[in-house]
Structure formats: structure tokens, C-alpha cells
Fold:
Amino acid sequence: DVLDLIVDSNKQTCADTQAELSLRWQLGEVEKGDRSAVTFKLHDGSTVYYRSDGSYITKSENGVISQGKDANLGDSFDKWVENVQANINTGSLNKNFVTVNNIKDLQPGDVLTLHPDKSGYGHTIGIKEVIEIPPSSGKKFYRTFAGSDPAIDARIMPDLMDVAAIEHEIKEGGVIGRFNDKVAPNKKLVASR
Structure:
């Protein structure tokens, strides 16, 4: 199965798919007035934003910070997202997470980063659904999804993962994270390094 998420950039690999879902959720919160900006930490530790007034900053791959402002909220958001995607990888996603320490606490939207190397390259999968089989048995299974590299599509994985499979990935260096989207959403934002 292919996830109903359009791969709109050749930058949208597995990590970028997870990031884009978070960024689009944040934009929805901005549009509702529940937060002042969409923010994301990049691989170098700097933070970029897209504010409710349409102002934003981007960072080129060679480190040049640029500012812009849209007349209408969202006009440049897709290009802003693509800029974020060009500046992140599996390893850098962890800078945007709160670690989930107990597998029993996994929920849809959580992300498992697998084996990032020193450059941050690895693989990233998202938890789409938590299922008990048989129902009410307490035996949890996880339906997952991931983007691809090269960026082709976002797929729902055909096989379910059980707790043992996730524990194995964690023992091999995997990290479970939850996007830190709800922390201090209205604080004053500045470009950071």
C-alpha cells in the first residue's frame, strides 16, 4: 500500500516524510491560532521557522541564512518544507524528538530511527497504527510506514512489527521518538546556531 502523501520533492526520503508530516501538522496549528510558528531543528543544530505572519527563514546547503515573507500565509510553505528536507537526515530527526522510553507508550505518529551513521544517514519509519491481536488481548502489533531513498513514494509496510521486533531494533541502536511539536509553541523565535 502507498500512503496517501504526495512525494512533492526529490529531497523527500524516509526522514523527510516523517518531518513533512510534523511540519504540515504544525502549519495546521498555526492556521488555527494554536501556535505562532512552525519550527524545525536542522542537522547542524540551527532552527528554522515559518511564522504566522508569513515571515520565514531558510538555510542553504552551504549555510547561508535567508529571510522571506509571504503576503498570504502558506504561499511559500512547500518551498520552505523542501528547504528543511535538504538540511535534515535520520540522525538529525532526533533533535526534534522527545524520546519514548517505554515501548508500551508507542502511539501513531511516533518515529523509529534506525542505525544512523556518523553523517546521520540511516532509516526512519513511522508508527501508523497500534493494533491488538486478538482484540483486548494486550498483544500489541504496529503497522508502520516509511518514505524511500530515492524519493519515490511513502509506503505502508505490509508486515506488522511486534514488540520483540522493536526491542531488537532498539538494541541495535534504534531510537523511538515523538515530535516535540507541542512544547512552548508561542515562545519568541530567532534563528539559532
About this structure: Helices lie at 14-32, 77-86, 90-93, 163-171. The CA atoms of residues 44 and 123 lie 19 Å apart. The first helix runs from residue 14 to 32. DSSP finds four helices and eleven strands in the chain.
